[in-house]
Amino acid sequence: MEISPVVCWLVAGLLLVGVDMLLGTFYLLVMGLAAGCGALAAWGSLSVGWQFSVFAVATIVGSLIVQRFRSAKPTESDALQQPDVGQNVTVKKWNDDGTTQVSYRGALWTAYTAQQSELSVGVWRIVRVEGTRLLIEPASH
């Protein structure tokens, strides 16, 4: 029994979207949607080379869009509208790269600090939400 390339692309896309739901990176979601574009290319009877080209271009464009939204600098009025600003989170350990995973609103978030604060465990305050990342500072400030 031969499996259709369209089905392969769709299964790959669903797997990528599923893994992204576990990790929350958005980049795997982009790749999952790009695999959907690859499925459309396969459905249109394009060659395997063109299918992968469509997948690659869709991945690059989608990643650039996600990066643009993640790197957009919030304004002061944006900070005032963020209900998460000022809320406390508990840091249990820091990673070598200066990030940590904190539980907030029932989900794991990647958090980091912009200050040259001592990376200690304990209670930290949310300064800003940047996509799926939290900028935090020690709660004693």
Question: Can you describe this structure in just a few lines?
Answer:
By secondary structure, the protein is of the alpha+beta class.
Radius of gyration: 20 Å
Largest sheet: spatial strand order = 1-4-5-3-2
Distance between the termini: 65 Å
β-strand percent reads 15-25%
Provide the residue-averaged pLDDT: 88
Helix content: 40-55%
Number of strands: 5
What coarse outline follows from CA principal-axis ratios? Answer: elongated
The succession of helices and strands, N to C, reads: HHHHEEEEE
DSSP helix count? 4
- Characterize the main sheet: 5 strands, mixed
| Poorly predicted segments | none
Structural class: alpha+beta
Note down, in words, how this protein is organized.
The protein is of the alpha+beta class and 141 residues long. The protein contains four helices and five strands. A five-stranded mixed sheet has the order 1-4-5-3-2, with no helix packed on it. α2 runs antiparallel to α3. The longest helix has 24 residues.
What are its keywords?
single chain, 5-stranded mixed β-sheet, elongated, 47% helix, 5 strands, 141 residues, alpha+beta
Topology:
Blueprint: H1 5-23, H2 27-43, H3 48-71, H4 76-81, E1 88-91, E2 99-104, E3 107-112, E4 122-130, E5 133-138
Parallel strand pairs: 3-5
Antiparallel strand pairs: 1-4, 2-3, 4-5
